[in-house]
Amino acid sequence: MTPRIIGVLLTILVFGAQGQVYVSAPATGATAPASADLAGVVSSGTLAGLVGCDSSAFLSMTTSTTTQAIALQAGKSIYVCGFVVNAGGTTTARIVQGTGTNCATGLTNMTPAFNLANGGNVTFGNSVGRLLKSNSGSALCITSSAAVALNILVIYTAY
Question: Which has the closest alpha carbon to 141: 82, 67, 91, 62?
Answer without folding.
Answer: 67
